[in-house]
Fold each of these.
Amino acid sequence: AIGGDGMVVSSSEIASEIGVKVLKNGGNAIDAAVAVGFALAVARYSFAVDLFYGLNHLFDRIPVAPAASFQ
């Protein structure tokens, strides 16, 4: 699906259209990617498993400041 100022591509036309709507309503590429990911998770169960495994892996890698830095 193609919008006026952006493009969204996925394996599902409906998921791509959702991503374009997010962009048209002021969202950025990350917002559109997350929306498309969740739309694909609904449309394709195997994608949901991969998506949530990937997000869990990503959040495990985010650095956390030591507790002493908050004092």
Note: The mean pLDDT is 76.
Amino acid sequence: GWQLTANVEYDPGFLNEVDLAFAPAGDGTLVTLTHHNLQRFGDAAAAMAPSLGEGWSMLLGLYQAHSATAA
């Protein structure tokens, strides 16, 4: 679960789910990340969605780069 609020503060009562799915894709693996329940961010949800997408893309890119060098 994701327990950071719109103010990027940890809150044990605030929960969003992040799912990762892995599927074969040619010679590699397709990784799909889905961040659920963004509406729980309330009024900040629409403004946060693009930033979250950019952040997850950056993080997955780092994992991809690392896995390419570790192989």
Note: The beta strands are 18-25, 28-35.
Amino acid sequence: GELIDAVPTAANVEYHANVHYALNLGQLSYRVGRKVYWDDKAMKVVGDRDAERSAMPHYRGPWSLPKEDAA
């Protein structure tokens, strides 16, 4: 539809995803008041349960974030 047509074909999605991660991790670090460590391969915060919980969105019922299947 219109959204797909509006995205330029030359958009560098990988670059913008990395910028997005950096900005969100900076915001997360600011909120928890300390450094936050990110595992790029696992795509999650490591070594800080509070920050890890804060990094995940909280949905109101009946909505939930889909869980990945354990392979």
Note: Helices lie at 2-6, 13-32, 49-55.
Amino acid sequence: ELIEHFSKNTLKGEIVLLIEEKEYPLENVELEELLKILKEKFSLGTKEALKMAAKILKTKKNVLYKQKYQ
């Protein structure tokens, strides 16, 4: 529902995204795929997508930066 809604409507301001693990376990998605999803669906830049991915994956941002750019 959210993907459909935000693909038709422009975001204004901040949003809070709550994801229940049982429905869509993002922890099991490869980093590149997760970044692609976050960037496309929420119009995020790479830096913002990495920050959000770090929260989703429960890890530090610098770990993901190193993984992405090495």
Note: The radius of gyration is 12 Å.
